[in-house]
Design a protein that fits this description.
It comes from Glareola pratincola. Keywords: Coiled coil, Nucleus. Its main location: nucleus. This is MYT1 factor. The protein has about 160 residues and is mainly α. It has one domain. It is built from four helices and no strands.
């Protein structure tokens, strides 16, 4: 401890210097305080923006999950449709082969029977021949004369053995 005056004591001199601030130092302190306040406002604004972005991201993620679910459902539906189409194509191919066999059997069975005003049945006139036969059987009342009755009977006998 010093027994002299405070002005001569090195500890007092140091303490006095430490407690005194110049005008520039006081101004710098004020600016630092305002900077802290300004930074505090900026931080609040940034936190608000971060919160809004997080909320927006959450909404976007939910929309993406929903969209992925819809895409997955659509892909499953498309796969089911493709499988159904494949089955239908196979059935159509089988029916086409069956129809082809039946048409060949019909052509062979009716090769010797001539319809009025038509050439003998062949692959080229098959559709027209079948249309004429269909018309004859649908409108049998128009074909009541004996000649037509005999023709219808001979057609019945010719196709009798065809398995449908």
């Amino acid at each position: 401890t010093c027994f002299f005056s405070l002005s001569g004591c090195p500890r007092a001199t140091f303490a006095g210097k430490k407690g005194k601030l110049s005008g520039d130092e006081i101004l710098n302190t004020k600016f630092k305080t305002s900077d802290v306040l300004e930074n505090d406002e900026e931080i609040k604004q940034l936190n608000k923006e971060i919160s809004e972005l997080n909320e927006s991201n959450s909404e976007m993620e939910a929309a993406m999950v929903k969209l992925q679910s819809q895409i997955s459902t659509m892909e499953k539906n498309l796969k089911n449709i493709e499988e159904e189409n494949k089955i239908i194509e196979e059935q159509n191919e089988a029916l086409f082969l069956e129809l082809s066999g039946l048409s060949q059997a019909l052509i062979q069975s009716l090769a010797n029977i001539r319809l009025p005003h038509m050439e003998p049945i062949s692959e080229q006139n098959f559709d027209a021949y079948v249309s004429t036969l269909t018309d004859m059987y649908t409108n049998q009342e128009c074909y009541q004369n004996p000649e037509n009755k005999d023709l219808l009977e001979s057609i019945k006998q010719a196709v009798k053995g065809i398995q449908v």
